[in-house]
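User: New here, any thoughts?
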Amino acid sequence: MDSWTTSKSGETAEIHKQIASSFTGGASFAYIVPTFFDPTHNSPMLILVHRGEYPLYDLTVRILDMATFDKMARPNNAYSDKLREEVQVSISNIAPNQARMLKTVQLGSDPLRWNLFFSARNGFFTELLRVRGVGNEWKTALKVISTPSSSHEQLLFEQIDSGYPRSEDGQVEW
């Protein structure tokens, strides 16, 4: 009788976990990737990509252009001036394994260095997005990490184009 009870309570716990994940988003996350329909053109479409088994609810993203932020980091600029340079986007909800076109952006000659801070019912995650011109094409590197309450972050996803520039030791300079 104990094995039957243990088995049933284990199944019940799993069902409760699935129900809770359906309401919160579970371990799902999203990221934004610039999609170059022509790799030589400098106007990619930003596409939001959902990853995971459960929907994401109340999804918002705060985009910080690190090049602009670094320029604003001079001592004579107040922190509020730096925050004014952020872009905040409310995505709302997105179903599992869906993608959504957001907008086209214009790239200049400088590398793109964005840090994107996502918030949803299931928590927080951060994307580091880097785009660099290599020859006459654009190459992208991105990684998504969990933003935990402790000091330990977890890599959720990483995608680096072949040919993306790396440091002497073979690493991407995030």
In short: The chain has a mean pLDDT of 86. The helical segments are 2-24, 66-72, 79-84. Strands lie at 29-35, 45-51, 56-65, 87-94, 99-104, 112-120, 123-134, 137-146, 155-160. The chain has one domain: 2-28+53-95+106-160.
